[in-house]
Each structure stands twice: as structure tokens, then as C-alpha cells.
Design brief:
CATH class: Mainly Beta
Radius of gyration: 20 Å
Strand order of the largest sheet: 1-2-3-8-7
Strand content: 25-35%
Number of strands: 8
Number of domains: 1
Structural class: alpha+beta
Order of helices and strands: HHEHEEHEEHEEE
Number of helices: 5
CATH architecture: Sandwich
Largest sheet: 5 strands, antiparallel
Oligomer: single chain
Length: 202
């Protein structure tokens, strides 16, 4: 166990996942129509009032926005690991915002290796390498699977607390959707999920 296994991250050059659009991320992002371009100031105020009405009282009338963040980070010193970083390892730090014709998903991936004497023995760097990700969009549910890219870090996860070797995040959308585009940049997985063209605007 002391002998360090292979720690070279396997290259993942999969250009497209099943159902993913072939255009570039920049081109896909340019086609997203922000809500504020379709809504007047008065309409946005009305939408805010509707948000105060219990769900089911007036149907689905407001944009769908989700934020999965850390509610309370707790103690902050060298003895305690940042809770947000721990939660990133479980795939629970993400946001979903609704625009006129699409949803924008931003999922934060881990950035730092947890403290470990074994990590020091194997001389692994503190910075976390990019996770290997796979995406799937089925029945209005986006499934993101992400995992450690090499054997050394996977073995380290087996003996470390709050450090799973992989995670799966499922995001369900409330309207029919079709097609998506993703990019991974600076430890953030960005995904554009398009609504079906016959879906009424947000």
C-alpha cells in the first residue's frame, strides 16, 4: 500500500456525449435568450410576487432556479477542512437557472486534495486534477457522473474521510427539454440544456 500506484490522469478526449449538440459551447451559449430580454420590469415584479404564492396555487409561472450550496460552513481554521470543498466531492454544489429557451447548469468540481499522510508519502500535489465526467440526458433528467482520474487518488479516497472516488448528480427539469452542450473550465462544469422549441417562454 505504501508503493505509489499510477497517478497519471488518463486523457479523456470524448468529443461528444450521447445526445449532445455538435456546435461549440460558445455558439450554443450565444443562442440562449436571457429572461430579462423578454420580460418588462413590471413583469419581473409580478413574477417575484408569484414566487411568494405556494406552489400549486397558481401553477408553474415563475422561472425555475435552484442553488445547492453550503448552508453553514462551521469552524474555519487549519484543523477543519472547508465544507464547500468537501461538498464538491459529492456533486452537491451547483446552480440551475432558467432562461427563455434553456437552462444553465453550473456544477463545481473538487479543487483540492484532502489532507493525508499517504498523500505526502506518495508525493501527490495539493491541487485536484480534473475529474473524468460523463453526461446523459434522458426523460428530462440530466445525469452527471464524475470520478477521480487515476488509481493513486482512487486508493487514497478509500482511506480518507469525506472523499468518495466518484459521485452522481441528477437534475430533473420541469419542462420538456432537448439537447445540451457542456464544457469544463476552471473546475466548473457548465451545461446548457435547451427546452423543446414548442415550450412556452419562462
Amino acid at each position: 500500500m505504501i508503493v505509489r500506484p499510477d497517478s497519471s490522469a488518463s486523457a479523456s478526449n470524448i468529443p461528444l456525449f450521447p445526445g449532445e449538440l455538435e456546435e461549440s459551447f460558445e455558439s450554443a451559449r450565444a443562442r440562449v435568450e436571457p429572461v430579462h430580454t423578454r420580460k418588462s420590469f413590471a413583469a419581473r415584479i409580478l413574477r417575484g410576487i408569484r414566487a411568494l404564492i405556494p406552489s400549486g396555487a397558481g401553477g408553474r409561472g415563475e422561472p425555475f432556479d435552484v442553488q445547492r450550496m453550503v448552508a453553514f460552513d462551521g469552524f474555519r481554521n487549519d484543523m477543519f477542512e472547508e465544507k464547500r470543498e468537501r461538498d464538491r466531492r459529492y456533486g452537491t454544489v451547483y446552480t440551475v437557472s432558467e432562461e427563455v429557451n434553456a437552462f444553465l447548469v453550473r456544477l463545481e468540481l473538487p479543487r483540492q486534495m484532502p489532507r493525508s499522510s499517504l498523500k505526502q508519502t506518495w508525493e501527490l500535489p495539493d491541487e485536484m486534477p480534473d475529474y473524468v465526467c460523463t453526461l446523459n440526458l434522458t426523460d428530462n433528467v440530466l445525469c452527471v457522473r464524475a470520478g477521480l482520474p487515476d488509481e493513486a487518488r482512487r486508493r487514497l479516497s478509500y482511506v480518507s474521510s469525506s472523499f468518495p472516488s466518484d459521485f452522481q448528480t441528477r437534475i430533473e427539469f420541469q419542462v420538456p427539454i432537448e439537447g445540451y452542450k457542456h464544457r469544463l473550465r476552471n473546475k466548473v462544469l457548465e451545461i446548457i440544456v435547451y427546452k423543446k422549441s414548442d415550450v412556452s417562454p419562462a
